[in-house]
């Protein structure tokens, strides 16, 4: 059966991107699974061209990998890579929030706080897809205030690697309202122009997100143990020296 697409509202490519992204996010297609261009074209009632274009965009986002003469696959990410990426993000995101608090104009900071109501509404409606989209828009606003091309380039690489895991983390029961409460603290600190409070609020948010993601990773480990981190390795080495 073909899926009805809103081709009059969005381009065929944009609609197919949304549809494929939803299939990946909701687990209909899983990590490592091959994606057939012909099957998707038939499923969505479009030609292969918008499907190919959509897959190229999703490859840029980090959701799929395209191997010439082999095929397109839902991207797989190892537990160690997930751990590494979240540790790097935990180091960078508080810095971004602090810089936004001091480098953003009063108008930018007030506007950032003003858009929080929409984020909270999405959290209460339990719309994970739109909530993630709103978070990405807020990330862009933070980067605009932080005025750092280096941070922007870093997140462009990092976020694609864990976008799917972020969606699954936020899909956990009650997670959206908890996330929104954390983002309220971040927004209030930035509006106040308080870099220290913004740094701490973002750091606490990232530490919580990292802990939750590690729990998701544990369930995927054959022996049930989390992937080792630089911190856990250091801790074990220190204990052995005592």
Automatic annotation (TrEMBL):
Matching SMART domains: FCD, HTH_GNTR
Gene3D superfamilies xref list: GntR ligand-binding domain-like, Winged helix-like DNA-binding domain superfamily/Winged helix DNA-binding domain
Ranges of residues in domain HTH gntR-type: 10-77
Single GO molecular function: DNA binding
One protein family per Pfam: GntR
Keyword vocabulary terms for this entry: DNA-binding, Transcription, Transcription regulation
PANTHER family: TRANSCRIPTIONAL REGULATOR, GNTR FAMILY (PTHR43537), UXU OPERON TRANSCRIPTIONAL REGULATOR (PTHR43537:SF5)
Name of the protein in question: GntR family transcriptional regulator
High-level lineage: Bacteria, Bacillati, Actinomycetota, Actinomycetes, Streptosporangiales
